[in-house]
Structures are given as C-alpha cells and as structure tokens.
C-alpha cells in the first residue's frame, strides 16, 4: 500500500507541472499501472474484504493508465494478422 501511495503521489505531482507526454509523467503512469497489475497487489487486495471488486478496479485503472500513455503519443492499435497468428500491432500516427 505504501508503494501505491508513493506512485500515485508522484504521478499527481508530475502531471500537475509537466505536459502529459513528458517522459517522467509517462514513467509514473507506467510504474503505477505495473504495480496495480502486480501479483502482490492482487493478493493483498484479495485478502481484504471485497478483494474481487478491488482486483477488477485495479485492472481497469491499470488499463486506463496505459491508454493515457498511448494517447499522449497518439498511438492507436490496428488489427493486423501476423505469421504467428498475432492480431494487434500498435502504430504511431
């Protein structure tokens, strides 16, 4: 919980004084998203009351942060079939 609080505080401060595409803002969002998706965050949320609800909210928040990062750089996903069966590729505008 302490790490989460620190990442959120860093993201808030950096977002307040720097533009959305600044590397420090992006790094803060990325780190927070990774923390929210980390197995330890999931385990600690599941241990408390309403763990499944917290887990779902954390995953949604992590995905929202990742979308903010992509949007800051005008990156959009395009579906494309690859030789290995993969379907999505991220391209920059």
Q: Could you describe the largest sheet, including whether it forms a barrel?
A: 2 strands, antiparallel
- Overall geometry comes to flat
Please mark out the parts with pLDDT under 50 across 5 or more consecutive residues, or reply none: none
Average pLDDT confidence is 78
The helical percent reads 55-70%
| Biggest sheet: strand arrangement | 1-2
Strand residue percentage:
5-15%
Q: Would you list the SSEs in sequence order as H and E?
A: HHHHEE
Q: Structural class given helices, strands, pairing? A: mainly alpha
Helical stretch tally: 4
In whole angstroms, the N-to-C terminal distance is 37 Å
Question: Using only CA atoms, what is the Rg?
Answer: 16 Å
Describe the protein.
- With 93 residues, this protein is mainly alpha-helical.
- It has four helices and two strands.
- The chain has helices at residues 2-17, 23-37, 39-47, 51-72, and strands at 75-79, 88-92.
- Strands 1-2 form a two-stranded antiparallel ribbon.
- A hairpin with an 8-residue loop joins β1 and β2 (88-92).
- α1 (2-17) runs antiparallel to α2 (23-37), α2 (23-37) runs antiparallel to α4 and α3 (39-47) packs antiparallel against α4.
- It is flat.
- It starts with a helix and ends with a strand.
- 12% of the residues are buried.
